[in-house]
Design brief:
single chain; 446 residues; alpha/beta; Arc Repressor Mutant, subunit A; Aspartate Aminotransferase, domain 1; Aspartate Aminotransferase, domain 2; 3 domains; eight-stranded mixed beta sheet; three-stranded antiparallel beta sheet; 15 strands; Aminotransferase class I/II-fold pyridoxal phosphate-dependent enzyme
């Protein structure tokens, strides 16, 4: 193995050594579980200092390719977790710690509201009057209807935004159907479509949302559904503008003679988004399923979201769900209602929204000072173009920072998306200039 690594290294810097070992792992020349030669052996073989090899090992560890087991040595990690869907698994990252992990796509835990008061509102026994009672608490439904972006026919509660998208697709699509997705898009959506045997039609996203001309061409292929994120788009952090929403609604109306796809809107960050809510339900209420999730604002482990749309579509989803989990726990719904109405949690979410917006602005300004063109993103994620994705991730890893690879979000069939990184900027609390300097180096790394 030592000879194989030595032969693969053509640039004897930490980055060059890390890149060579990365290629060996990606091509299978080094397999999961293989023990790497010691740092001193590799250094002696390459004629470099042990510190140079140690820095290369740290970079590889930072991007999840190898792991150190102390005196036992360093080992190649499994390429992915076997139970994880392939696109989703690309977000899993490594099993080692980073000084600053910006790959997660999860909110800052310190900005989530305290659940203590809400938990006291839950019943002391997990009972229900009947298995056939309404699946949604009446008070919660009234509150949701009052805050919905349009007058909605029916609302139900499900176990998170991805559960809502999955159930919507299950009720709408059949094997061989076509579905429009954003490019870049959310990896679990790609896994869902592949699982269902559905052909995805990628439509590019620009600074205001889906590109109208591309959507018009995609509609000629008669898709049965369109999945989009109207606010704080993951991964780019853009939010759909009012003008773009109206333009896209006109495109959809103009194509009604071809077909009438259902629009599935995943508003996963609505409560912490600094942008107003724009829904196609305003113009196309009979063709829109709108999802409001509370993972980013109130906590990912709550696993709860609201799904609203025309009665015919929502009732079909509710009826099928009655033959599975039945309903989302009303104890959990009670906690959500308290979080959405109690002053302390409302204040906490308001503060989180303001802080996330400030962090995005501070990072954007720091990047601009480093000569990297960047605009302020919405929500917790931001999208940064780079010269070389692997080189940029290795550069960040050498500095103790982990990011998500942009290729994971590529919805195009030929993998043609330009190289990017997704950063969970909402988790950056300080040292924006230091991070921006490292990011600038990563952006230019080749």
């Amino acid at each position: 193995m030592l000879d194989r690594i030595t032969a693969a290294v053509d640039i004897r810097t930490p980055e060059g050594i890390a890149a060579a070992v990365s290629r060996l792992i990606r091509t299978g020349a080094l397999g999961a579980g293989d023990r790497l030669p010691t740092v001193r052996d590799v250094a002696a073989s390459l004629g470099v200092s042990p510190a140079t090899v140690s820095n290369a090992w740290q970079a590889l560890s930072g991007v999840g390719l190898i792991t150190s087991r102390g005196r036992a040595g360093s080992f190649v990690l499994q390429a992915s977790t076997t139970w994880m869907p392939p696109h989703f698994g690309g977000l899993a990252g490594s099993h080692v710690e980073a000084r600053l992990d910006l790959s997660t796509g999860t909110p800052d835990p310190e900005l989530l509201p305290d659940l203590s008061a809400a938990l006291t509102k839950a019943p002391t026994r997990a009972d229900t009057a009947s298995y056939l009672s309404s699946p949604v608490l009446p008070d919660l439904e009234l509150h949701l209807r009052a805050s919905w972006p349009y007058a909605v026919g029916a609302i139900t509660i499900v176990d998170g935004a991805l559960d809502a998208v999955s159930r919507a697709l299950d009720s709408l699509v059949r094997f061989g159907d076509r579905v429009v997705v954003e490019n870049p898009g959310f990896p679990p959506f790609l896994d869902l479509l592949e699982h269902l045997g559905v052909t995805r039609i990628p439509v590019d996203v620009d600074g205001e949302g889906l590109v109208p001309g591309q959507l018009a061409r995609a509609l000629r292929l008669e898709p049965v559904a369109i999945i989009l994120q109207p606010r704080a788009h993951n991964p780019t952090g853009i939010s759909m503008s009012a003008d773009r929403a109206r333009e896209l609604a006109r495109v959809l109306r103009a194509s009604e003679h071809i077909g009438a796809p259902v629009v599935i809107e995943d508003d996963h960050s609505g409560e912490i988004s600094s942008a107003p809510a724009h829904s196609f339900g305003t113009w196309l209420p009979q063709r829109t399923l709108h999802i409001r999730s509370y993972a980013k604002s109130h906590g990912p482990d709550l696993r709860i979201a609201a799904l609203g749309g025309p009665e015919a579509l929502v009732d079909r989803i509710v009826a099928r769900r009655m033959l599975g989990p039945g309903w989302t726990s009303r104890m959990l719904q009670t906690i959500l209602f308290e979080l959405l109405t109690a002053t302390p949690s409302l204040t906490a979410v308001h503060d989180a929204r303001r802080i996330y917006q400030a962090r995005q602005r501070l990072l954007a300004e720091a990047l601009v000072r480093q000569g990297v063109e960047h605009t302020v993103s919405d929500g917790i994620n931001t999208w940064i173009p780079v010269a070389d994705e692997k080189a940029s991730m290795l550069t960040l890893a050498a500095g103790g920072v982990r990011a998500a690879a942009g290729s994971t979000f590529d919805a195009s069939p030929d993998g043609s998306l330009a190289p990017h990184l997704r950063l969970t900027a909402g988790r950056v609390r300080d040292d924006f200039d230091d991070l921006a300097a490292l990011l600038a180096a990563a952006v230019r790394a080749t």
